[in-house]
């Protein structure tokens, strides 16, 4: 019973730590979406205008796919429920799909849990292991973007996909696959997000939900708009920013999902510890009462035996 109580203290402390961090991580993930989505819309619109023209933009070139690179984003720590397993299963399923199409596949693993997973599987080709920081930064995203850029430009791979966990709400997240290169219009998010404000009610942690409508939907450029610079130069200048923003966004979404999953897992563990303590108390009290009853019966039987003596 004492061991369970000590474990409960640990899990409750971990839940509070995750709860304190998840708000900041969620704000970073949700606030970064409008910029990433608008940048993607602008690039896609410019790219569409360039399709009829004979221009050479390497990062938008759609060529026959022979090899695909998967950037798999996992967490650095465990004790977060099925968070890491879910994204790794998603990546494995995607590899199986590519294998059926007779396409080669390589992995850029981001996160300690993913790194240890792929290190134990030498049959999977891994180009690079990246250990994430405590909080995703643009510098970390740029490092991954540079690797992806060089692999695509040198034609080591013909397509790059992001596999990460999208933050939906505090109690829900889902692994998703997003095409990173060549430039794709995919990746538009839901039109409404939920913010979560952590409060304390009656001495216990509580969560208040606040729905916020996103200004959605693709801004689109006017067909009458004229560019002072050559559109090719604009795309060349914006593509590095696009890579960095999309990868940073994936890291932020994954980090927020990891913290939310850890908070829920530790909350469930705390509840289980409380329930287990109650069950153990019942068993302990029954045994104690049975022992006392047995001792009383022995004393009474001994007293009766003394009365019967002459």
* Alpha-beta classification: alpha/beta
- With helices defined by DSSP (H or I, 4 residues minimum), what is the helix count? 6
Strand order of the largest sheet: 3-2-1-4-5
Give the averaged pLDDT, no decimals: 79
Unreliable parts: 185-200, 205-218
Instruction: Tell me, briefly, the overall form.
Output: elongated
Task: Tell me the fraction of residues in β-strands, as a range.
Answer: 15-25%
Kindly state the percentage of residues in helix. 40-55%
User: Gap between N and C termini, in Å?
Assistant: 50 Å
Care to describe what's here?
The chain is an alpha/beta fold. 54% of the residues lie in helices and 19% in strands. The protein has helices at 2-31, 33-50, 83-100, 112-119, 138-153, 231-307, and strands at 67-73, 104-110, 126-130, 159-169, 172-181, 192-201, 204-213. A five-stranded mixed beta sheet has the order 3-2-1-4-5, sandwiched between helices. It has a two-stranded antiparallel ribbon with strand order 6-7. Strand 1, helix 3 (83-100) and strand 2 (104-110) form a beta-alpha-beta unit. The longest helix is centred in the last third of the chain and has 77 residues, at 231-307. It is elongated.
């Amino acid at each position: 019973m004492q061991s369970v109580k000590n474990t409960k203290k640990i899990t409750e402390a971990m839940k509070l730590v995750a709860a304190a961090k998840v708000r900041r991580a969620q704000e970073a993930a949700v606030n970064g979406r409008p910029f990433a989505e608008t940048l993607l819309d602008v690039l896609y619109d410019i790219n569409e205008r360039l399709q009829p023209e004979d221009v050479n933009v390497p990062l938008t070139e759609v060529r026959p796919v022979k090899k695909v690179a998967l950037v798999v984003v996992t967490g650095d720590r465990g004790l977060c429920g099925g968070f890491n397993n879910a994204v790794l299963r998603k990546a494995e399923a995607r590899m199986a799909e590519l294998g059926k199409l007779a396409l080669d596949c390589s992995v850029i693993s981001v996160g300690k849990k993913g790194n240890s997973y792929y290190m134990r599987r030498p049959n999977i080709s891994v180009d690079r292991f990246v250990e994430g920081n405590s909080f995703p930064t643009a510098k970390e995203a740029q490092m991954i973007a540079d690797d992806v850029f060089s692999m695509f430009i040198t034609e080591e791979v013909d397509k790059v996909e992001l596999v990460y966990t999208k933050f939906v709400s505090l109690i829900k997240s889902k692994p998703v696959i997003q095409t990173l290169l060549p430039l794709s219009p995919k990746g538009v998010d839901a039109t409404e997000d939920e913010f979560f404000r952590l409060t304390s009610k009656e001495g216990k942690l509580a969560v208040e939900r606040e729905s916020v409508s996103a200004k959605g939907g693709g801004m689109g450029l006017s067909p009458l708009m004229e560019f002072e610079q050559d559109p090719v130069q604009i795309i060349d200048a914006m593509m590095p920013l696009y890579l960095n923003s999309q990868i940073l966004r994936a890291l932020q979404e994954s980090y927020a999902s990891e913290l939310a999953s850890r908070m829920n897992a530790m909350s469930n563990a705390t509840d289980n510890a409380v329930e287990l303590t109650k069950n153990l108390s019942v068993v302990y009290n029954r045994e104690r009462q049975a022992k006392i009853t047995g001792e009383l019966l022995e004393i009474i039987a001994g007293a009766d035996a003394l009365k019967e003596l002459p």
